[in-house]
Write a structure and sequence with these properties.
The protein is an all-alpha fold. α1 runs antiparallel to α2, α1 runs parallel beside α3 and α3 runs antiparallel to α4. The protein is built from five helices and no strands. The longest helix is centred in the N-terminal third of the chain and has 27 residues. It is elongated, with a radius of gyration of 21 Å.
Length: 158
């Protein structure tokens, strides 16, 4: 009964093409890179809020700064949980925001920075196997997308 079965097509090797999981040190480095950027964003947004001309803009900037700070803490927590040392430095983004003259220019730069984070997360998420980390990064990505939209809407009003 060693009957051979003929298949209509060759076997699929698509699973072999999937991105491999991110090695732990690369993952820790990525999380630290994101955390320094989030810290810079929070710091820059707090400064922007101090100089905001309206209550509406001050509220928006403070809310986004709170998101940035929350994600910085979350990322640092995961770095520690994975056995790494959190990087406590502030990225250059805060200085870049401070050098912009007008609120629309600052919001445009903020949009670009948030968009970079979204792209980094979208590229990396398929390579993350830690369920809790993946869940937190998906939330972070989704909140960044919402904040990008909020800033764009606000920019249209000023």
């Amino acid at each position: 009964m060693d009957e051979q079965i003929e298949c209509a097509s060759p076997p699929c090797y698509a699973a072999d093409l999937a991105d491999p999981p991110l090695p732990q040190q690369e993952l820790i480095d990525l999380l630290n890179e994101l955390a320094t950027g989030e810290r810079a964003g929070a710091q820059g947004l707090i400064e922007m809020a101090k100089n905001a001309a309206s209550d509406e803009s001050r509220t928006l900037l403070r809310e986004i700064a709170a998101d940035e700070a929350r994600y910085c803490a979350m990322l640092s927590h995961h770095v520690e949980r994975l056995g790494g040392t959190p990087d406590r430095t502030v990225g250059v983004f805060a200085d870049k925001l401070a050098r912009r003259e007008s609120l629309p220019d600052k919001l445009t730069l903020l949009d670009k920075g948030q968009s970079v984070v979204v792209r980094m997360l979208e590229e990396t998420l398929p390579r993350i196997t830690d369920d809790k980390l993946k869940e937190d990064l998906i939330e972070m990505r989704d909140v960044h997308v919402v904040n990008i939209d909020r800033c764009r809407e606000f920019s249209l009003q000023i």
